[in-house]
Give the backbone structure.
Amino acid sequence: MAGDVNAPSGAGLTSPRLRRQMVERLRARGIRDERVLAAMASVPRHVFVDEALASRAYQDIALPLGFQQTISQPYVVARMLELLSQGRRLRKVLEIGAGSGYQAALLAQLATEVFAVERIEPILAQARENLRSLRLHNLRLKNADGHLGLAEVAPFDGIIAAAATPHVPEAWLEQLAPGGRLVMPKGDAEQFLVVIEHTPDGFVEERHEAVRFVPLLSGLGAR
Ligand code: SAH
């Protein structure tokens, strides 16, 4: 990918050094997957947040995206990527809830092909804008309701959801290739990260840490 073309000149608050410090904090909090850490070190998070918030881009906090949506905190993003990839190179991956495009850009470092859907068109337009300078040729974005997955390009060996639901949409399981993994925040008021793996014996679910995500909503639009 392109280097730091977006680092505003003289902006020490968005420098590669801060990004490396963010990565060291992720390592200290227990993220072990070197490919995930390398991806986090290379993708400039400040490009994906509002300019007014850029100076906070490398703190381990969630930040607002507009339309009551948030870009997840770096630790949770890294943890989900680690649970998804398990040190393997992924082939085809689907992200539900592209938001700012940040996690999609990270996925594009870890997978051969990435598809990301987002239900709010103006958020998607902003994501395209954010992603432009990174020139990622293996990432496709679509304005769609992620409940349906993306049948036209399924099956996926990884599906990652950035919005929470207590019920796993049927389409996600149907579109998971054998050996594939789905990582999602499951629940509503109380949520946990879960991994669902498509094994020869069926779908096996593992529960991980408690999290707090925006809800998976139905249909298109910003309501
Ligand atoms: N991965 C994003 C975080 C996005 S927050 C990032 O890195 O910035 C969750 C996103 O999921 C929001 O943008 C929200 O609009 C979107 N979303 C919620 N329900 C959805 C659905 N059914 N289909 C597609 N996107 C959905």
Observations:
- The pocket of S-adenosyl-L-homocysteine is lined by residues 69-72, 96-97, 99-100, 102-103, 117-120, 123, 145-147, 162-163, 214, 216-217 (CB under 6 Å).
- The first helix runs from residue 16 to 28.
